[in-house]
Design brief:
mainly alpha; three-stranded antiparallel sheet; 6 strands
Amino acid sequence: VDLDEPLEQNYVKKSAVELREQNAENPEARVFGPPPGKYNTNLTDIISAGQWENEKELIDDYLNNMSYAYMRNQKVKRSVKTFSENIRKINLMSQIRDSSEYHIMDLDHYYEFTGGLARTYEELSGKKANIYIADTSSKKIKVDTIEKSIKEGAITRTLNPRWIKGLLVHKYHGGQKIAEKIENILGLAATTHSVDNWIWDKSYEQYFENEEIREALIENNRFAMMDIIKNMLQADQRGYWDASEEKIDNLKKLFLELENWVEMTY
């Protein structure tokens, strides 16, 4: 920012000058994050609780928690306008995966940070974000759009009978992991708008129409199955899944059966 260069050659300086003219706070700031002492947002808690009314709540939480500018001399200041204007100028977003153990839907932090940024950009710019996922877990680096990455994760893991049955070998914990994946898909749908309808249809097919898997999951962890149902019902209610009335009725019926079991048992 302090270099004696023409604005056309120094984009950082050009941006800082423009922000200064808009009376933005700390216009030279380029590194943003949560406030000192905190490393995340509340997005995962909001998605998990399921009490949010609309996506604006997700955007507001992301901005409120990620708009702290980290500058020289360990100076940290909340700079919402500067952060927002920098987001508005984004052309491309990227997320690196460095481990084969975790795919895009295996961790809630992917939708929390990449998704939170994408949804905020969409709100501020009026355009859908271009998001690319770089898989660096092997020598051959692969870069895909987030849509393709979500599709790959769904086919190879969440919708893969061998993967599902492998998890269900682990009593209680296996069902819990599956439920977490479905919740993460809901989080990705809400923040990136990149989860296709067929993923929800196939999830229903695998976990509810497939009697062997359905009964094994219930036996493994009834509470996890209830969480899966709640998140799939949410996906339909929030417009991320165009489910038939029959599917919704079946989900509600099974949920009531499981709820009755819980009440009688506990």
